[in-house]
Specification:
The protein has three domains: 3-143 and 233-238, D-Maltodextrin-Binding Protein, domain 2 (3-Layer(aba) Sandwich), CATH 3.40.190.10; 147-222, D-Maltodextrin-Binding Protein, domain 2; 247-323, Alpha-Beta Plaits (2-Layer Sandwich). It is 36% helix and 28% strand. The chain contains eleven helices and 15 strands. β13 and β14 (290-297) form a beta hairpin. α1 packs across α2.
Length: 324
């Protein structure tokens, strides 16, 4: 091997080892109960993958208990294993149970989906941010590959009804319509696979991950039936709030009167803050009243952000975080 390449490899290896050690040290400190998950800044995917490997190596000994919605083998479970491989998942039936686990200390963190590139926002999660004092520590994007799954003796032409989580059914609606299959809403993708295996009927199918099929000894009848570029963005949540990061989220409340929203948005415009999300959500138990889920570039420690927030009437900060 060329000596210059060998020398360069040694330098790269040393720097990567230093990165792993620094992440370990940051997480060993009193970090206000937050995981330190640095963002690897690069516009090259292969470099981002290398940065992710260093994070996984640094966190593998921590084994935090993280509550998620869904069964073992769900897409959230799959995404968590890529994001924090050492995590010990606590499987729950509902998003509310995940938030309850975090608030009551049954889990150190929660891991929930925020939005999908096809199905849009996961509205239930944003409504829970309104209800609970829970904050975002980091986000993570994960590619979702949907598969049509059946029992071992089933063939693709046997399938008449397809069970899955509502988000998965939305993301695969084009395929289901084309095949003339009846969608049946279920609480979870992996749970749908588990259920059809228990029923043991050839006409029942499920949409879920390859891992779910393996876990429950089911048969993949057709692979990758969803959109080709299908990603879900997840959030790591905690009762402890971060103030540093490259993004910030909040819940914005405005009076139900002309110009109220425009006035609130002007506060961000005046400070040259780029909004990356603005979405209305209905207020629970208050008909025709709404709040807004807001995300923007910048951290709570920045003076311009402090000035913008000072111009708002009512809001709830969800924390600053690293956008993965």
């Amino acid at each position: 091997m060329d000596k210059s390449i060998e020398s360069l490899d040694e330098k790269i290896a040393k720097l990567l080892e230093e990165r792993v050690q620094l992440i370990k040290e940051m997480n060993a400190k009193d970090n206000n109960g937050n995981l330190f998950i640095p963002k690897g800044e690069s516009n090259k995917e292969w470099l981002k993958e290398i940065f992710e490997v260093t994070i996984k190596e640094a966190l593998k000994e921590l084994k935090p208990k993280i509550s998620i919605q869904g069964e073992k083998g769900s897409f959230t479970d799959e995404a968590l294993k890529h994001f924090i491989p050492s995590a010990e998942p606590i499987y729950r039936d509902t998003f509310q149970s995940v938030f309850e686990d975090v608030v009551k200390g049954k889990a150190e963190y929660g891991f929930v989906p925020l939005e999908n590139t096809t199905g849009g926002s996961v509205g239930d999660v944003w409504s829970l941010f309104h209800h609970y004092n829970v904050y975002m520590l980091a986000t993570y994007k994960h590619r979702i590959v949907h598969n049509l799954i059946g029992i071992a003796k089933a063939k693709i032409n046997d399938i008449k009804e397809v069970y899955s989580h509502p988000q998965a059914l939305i993301q695969c609606s084009e395929y289901l319509t084309k095949k003339g299959l009846k969608p049946i809403k279920w609480y979870d993708t992996a749970g749908a696979v588990k259920d059809i295996m228990e029923k043991d009927e050839k006409e029942n199918g499920a949409i879920a991950s390859k891992r779910a099929a393996e876990i429950y000894n089911a048969k993949i009848l057709e692979e990758d039936i969803g959109p080709s570029r299908n990603y879900t963005r997840f959030a790591l949540i905690s009762t402890k709030m971060r103030e540093n990061g490259n993004k910030t989220a909040l819940i914005l409340y405005v009076h139900h009167e002309p110009g109220a929203l425009l006035k609130a948005l002007k506060a961000f415009d005046e400070e040259n803050i780029n909004l990356t999300r603005l979405e209305s959500r209905p207020m629970p138990n208050e008909p025709w009243e709404y709040f807004f889920a807001v995300e923007f570039d910048g951290s709570l420690k920045e003076e311009r952000v402090k000035r913008a927030l000072g111009k708002l009437n009512k809001y709830k900060v969800l924390g600053s975080y690293e956008e993965g």
